[in-house]
Amino acid sequence: MIVILTALEIEHGAVRARVTGVEQHSHPAGTVFDVGTIDDRPECTVALALTGMGNLTAAALAERAVAQFSPAALLFVGVAGSLREWLRLGDVIVADKVYAYQGGRIVDSGLLSRPRAWELAHRAEQVARLVSRAGTWSRSLPAEGPGSVPRVHFGPIAAGDVVLDSELSDVAKLLHHNYNDAVAVEMESAGLALAGHLNGNIPAVTIRGISDHASGDKEFTDAEGWQTPAARNAAAFAVSLAAALDDGTGAAEPVAAAPPAAAPVNVAKDNATVSQQIGVNHGTTNFGGARA
User: What is the pLDDT of residues 70-129, one digit of tens each?
Assistant: First the structure.
């Protein structure tokens, strides 16, 4: 079982279109999960839910999904804003690190950053790179049209609780000066990463399609419909990754617990008594407060 979460309806729909045999599963608190199998991999079961925007809801519903399904991995799938000029609209980003970038302390001189960061689990990263190299994940995508030839990149993603659409804002400057390796920005991955961390380090993987440049152009790229191909491309990669993780290649092998050590047994040899053998007869020894 793999849990896939999305923030927006357009992202949810892109994943839902690749899941068959869907049955709705309602959590007692009201969250609705679509449970089904991936189109071409019927052995891979996924539970899909919509979280809404923000790290808080992502963390809460990821935690709920873990308790409900005990998944092998958590995936967050959707769109993101680019922080790099070389990223094309429609490209796919797999986060190998997630920054919760808004932590800090405000002093007279400004913000002193105190971020949290989570790296992608090594095994999950290796599987994701195998899926990327194989290239078969993109076979179902349109051969022509916007975002039809997406590239896959691995890099850090910055997650906050604001929609960034400016290169001149304080948030943009913060990212540039303190998180300059981040390649994209969005609003949910820190919550997902925290939930994975708190549940035995379940692999928590973020897959995002680039839908804007976080530079003041979001209104225009959204109007041009770029969220649709970006979400579609991210969903295509995500379901291929889910299938790879669910067949065991992405799960850690269970480690057998070592048998409990046998309690030491004192055996007297020759003509010595046990008390003589441990040296009690050579002085006064204290055992837990009793004097022997």
Answer: 999 999 999 999 999 999 999 999 999 999 999 889 898 888 888 899 999 999 999 999
Pairing of strands 116-119, 32-38: unpaired
* CA 80 distance to own-chain centroid: 15
Closest CA to 80 of 199, 284, 218: 218
Quickly state the pLDDT bin for 40 (edges 50, 70, 90): confident
Query: Where do we find the tokens 């839908």?
Result: 211
> Does any domain span residue 28?
yes
Q: How far apart are CA 205 and CA 108, in angstroms?
A: 37
Domain count, the chain: 1
Is residue 275 in some structural domain? no
Positive or negative: CA dihedral 35, 37, 38, 39: negative
197, part of any domain: yes
Residue-wise pLDDT for 147-160, tens only, equals 998 999 999 999 99
**Residues 192/62, Cβ–Cβ less than 8 Å:** yes
- What is the CATH number for 225? 3.40.50.1580
